Amino acid sequence: MKMKFATMAVTAMMAAAPAMADLVFPSLSYRTGPYAAGGIPFADGYADYFTLLNERDGGIGGVPTRLLECETGYNTAKGVECYESTKGEGALVYQPLSTGITYQLIPKVTADGIPLHTMGYGRTSAANGEVFSNVFNYPSNYWDGASGAINYLLESNGGDISGKKIALVYHNSAYGKEPIRTLEELQKKHGYELTLLPVDHPGQEQKSQWLQIRRERPDFVVMWGWGVMNQVAIQEASNIRFPMENFIGVWWSGAEHDVLPAGDKANGYKAVTFHNVGRDFPVFDDIQKYVVDTGKAAGAGDQIGNVLYNRGMYAAMLAAEAAKTAQEMHGTAEITPAMMRDGMEALVIDEAKMTALGMPNFGPSFNVSCENHGGPGLVGMTQWDAANQTWSMISDFKETDGEVIGALVAEDSASYAAENNIEAGCK
Amino acid sequence: MFYREAGDFKTNYADDNQTFPIKFDRYRYYALMLFAFIVVPFLINDYWVNAIFLPFLIYSIAAIGLNILVGYCGQVSLGTGGFMAVGAYACYKLMTSFPEISIFIHVLLAGGVTALVGVLFGLPSLRIKGFYLAVATLAAQFFLVWLFNRVPWFYNYSASGQISAPERTVFGVAVTGPNTSAWATYLFCLVLLTIVGLIARNLTRGMQGRKWMAIRDMDIAAEIIGVNPLKAKLSAFAVSSFFIGVAGALYFSVYLGAVEVGEAFGINQSFLVLFMIIIGGLGSIFGSFAGAAFLVLMPVLLKNVLVGGLGWPTDIAAHLEFLIVGALIIVFLIAEPHGLAQLWRVAKEKLRLWPFPH
């Protein structure tokens, strides 16, 4: 009798196992709190792309995808709870969209063998794949963003910005502090003056910072803001009549909801980017046909084509392509997180692939390798047109200062490796 | 019927003065301790420990600490987040400076450092009272967070200003860092909570606790009967900050593993712990546990029911969570202004008389 029961239990378990076979993509999103304005479009884009894959192609490689959404509220403790509650379901890759949560997850995912993709955020030195085996931050990171902004200023000022004053308005957190080191290194190289202006969470109070800008009259202002901080900064900048074309945000400070509250005065504001903007891509027709028209759009469905929606969709596309790569590498459609990691490390994105996906010139072409988890670090520039209410690319994806950034990445990742007894090297 | 002193004879003072004089209570307590120490470590997994047990245990320590100051000594404090940050950063500096020493020692030392800082910020309590003291401790909160953000020495000059806990062990078992097992972190926090709970319980029912309560109830009268307000208030600040510092050290090193001071130890943290003791019951050790359990478990439970059980969209669930927890707090406070501990006390009184209430 006992034997019979045991056999039954085993059979039941074996029968139950194949039912789990779908590709699980957790989405640690935030649709509430002071950062929801940025969290919602990203989460919608991420979800809609996977819905599109399921509806149009029947998933990835014939296996349907399953999105596990978990609300973090941009809060690290809730992020941990979300991670623990979803990792047991076979989560293939985490994209927390929060630098704070990323820092927490880096050691955890490495111990659990799950890849972490922090696209344009997180710990920049994770670009060194020899130390951070499970963390990826392709195609671009914060330091590329900082360097890209400085390169743009160099270009538009005839290659010389020595003696110019640049103010960095940043979110006073791990996220906002990331570019400081790079900007300081570049300061030595290009000879500009850097002023640091921290803004405390959540960033609604910026009067004193902008008063200082008004007094010191920097030539350029660079911003590392997120959430409600962006709109307030742009509003304050227009209040002190700071010329918008000299105001450059990082990619997290350059979406529609950041500039719309300031109205016409925000015209000319710029933001660096690592992917294209607008909805002039064939993939949006498919999204309209398979996702929106069938009533399966995530959230309210009103974010399609926004900058951050595109970024969420781009993140999902890169994850899906990595999953495809992993399926081809390992010859199985039902991949594990470890296989997914291999797929991400062997990911190749080129123009032909993006065109086939209906996203021609949507992002830069790049290859990921074990040594370089950070991609090429190509950065473009976008500008806001208040009359038409559109963002447009005004400079194509260009090289950043790899020499300075490479040295910083090597230094920071070496100190992480020393702190945590990690032996650097490719397996 | 079964919950009463009748027939339970004590023959010496030690027995008569014990924490749980009623036999049923005592056995329940032993059973709970046995369950927590022997059964739970075999049952828990990463999810249970990281989402439920660790926050509950750590917030219980913090709530006990704050309850000593606010509930027993009557000194309102809004600086809990700042003091937890002191514990966390002290622990981080100690961990990275003396890697060979057991983390257990570091956590206690971090508590000690916090106690010193707490006494320093407790000094104004000798002159100012009530709401004004709350404002002074609020200054401590903002000052400490600013300090840890501002001075790079505290975060070892890391580029991002984050501190992250390297792997440290107790008796060769890792309790911090990424490669911990669920039972190890759970037991580590549970042992500390048990020690803290025992110390707090015995302090508060001894002479020291009576002095604190005398100060709380009427400080002038207390002074007249011979309680030294300087010693009483500063000792309350020291003991309270010690516990809060231990909680902060655990919150950073064992629970989160990496923190950013403004986000993890902001003013919200201070309010959260204050709400815990208000809902749980001021001046009650059990209340600290109950309050911590209520505010830690309720959101997780609601989330699991609404999102996991009913399959609602996460944003609606998150908003509803705020509504429900908020409404429950109001309901509780209207129904029982003295907190969950008072409900428990009333229940016990009723049990004693049951089944013949008259």
Write the layout of secondary structure elements.
The complex is a heterodimer of chains A (427) and B (358).
Chain A: H1 2-16, E1 23-29, H2 36-57, E2 65-71, H3 76-87, H4 99-112, E3 116-117, E4 135-136, H5 142-156, E5 165-171, H6 174-190, E6 193-199, H7 207-216, E7 220-224, H8 228-239, E8 247-249, H9 256-259, E9 270-273, H10 282-292, H11 307-330, H12 337-345, E10 348-349, H13 351-356, E11 366-367, E12 379-385, E13 390-398, H14 402-419
Parallel strand pairs in A: 1-2, 3-4, 5-6, 5-7, 7-8, 8-9
Antiparallel strand pairs in A: 9-12, 10-11, 12-13
Chain B: H1 13-16, H2 23-43, H3 46-72, H4 80-97, H5 103-122, H6 130-150, E1 163-164, E2 169-170, E3 173-174, H7 182-204, H8 207-217, H9 219-224, H10 229-256, E4 258-259, H11 261-264, H12 267-280, H13 285-309, H14 314-335, H15 339-353
Antiparallel strand pairs in B: 1-4, 2-3
Helix pairs in contact in B: 2-7, 3-7, 3-10, 3-12, 3-13, 4-5, 4-6, 4-10, 5-10, 7-10, 8-10, 12-13, 12-15, 13-14, 13-15
How would you portray this structure in words?
Chain A: Keywords: Signal. Chain A: This is Leucine-binding protein domain-containing protein. The complex is a heterodimer of chains A (427) and B (358). With 427 residues, chain A is an alpha/beta fold. Chain A has two domains: 21-140 and 277-377, Rossmann fold (3-Layer(aba) Sandwich), CATH 3.40.50.2300; 142-273 and 379-402, Rossmann fold, CATH 3.40.50.2300. Chain A has helices at 2-16, 36-57, 76-87, 99-112, 142-156, 174-190, 207-216, 228-239, 256-259, 282-292, 307-330, 337-345, 351-356, 402-419, and strands spanning 23-29, 65-71, 116-117, 135-136, 165-171, 193-199, 220-224, 247-249, 270-273, 348-349, 366-367, 379-385, 390-398. The longest helix of chain A has 24 residues, at 307-330. With 358 residues, chain B is mostly helical. Chain B has a domain at 44-265. Chain B is 72% helix and 2% strand. Chain B has 15 helices and four strands. Chain B has a two-stranded antiparallel sheet. A two-stranded antiparallel sheet of chain B has the order 2-3. In chain B, helix 3 (46-72) packs parallel to helix 7 (182-204). The radius of gyration of chain B is 21 Å and the shape is globular. Chain A binds chain B through residues 29, 31-32, 36, 40, 69-71, 73, 75-77, 80-81, 84-85, 87-88, 99-100, 103-104, 106-108, 110-111, 123, 172-175, 177-178, 180-181, 198, 200-201, 299, 412, 415, 419-421, and chain B through 45-47, 50-51, 55, 96, 149, 158-162, 164, 166-167, 177-179, 255-260, 262-264, 266, 300, 303, 307, 313-315, 317-319.
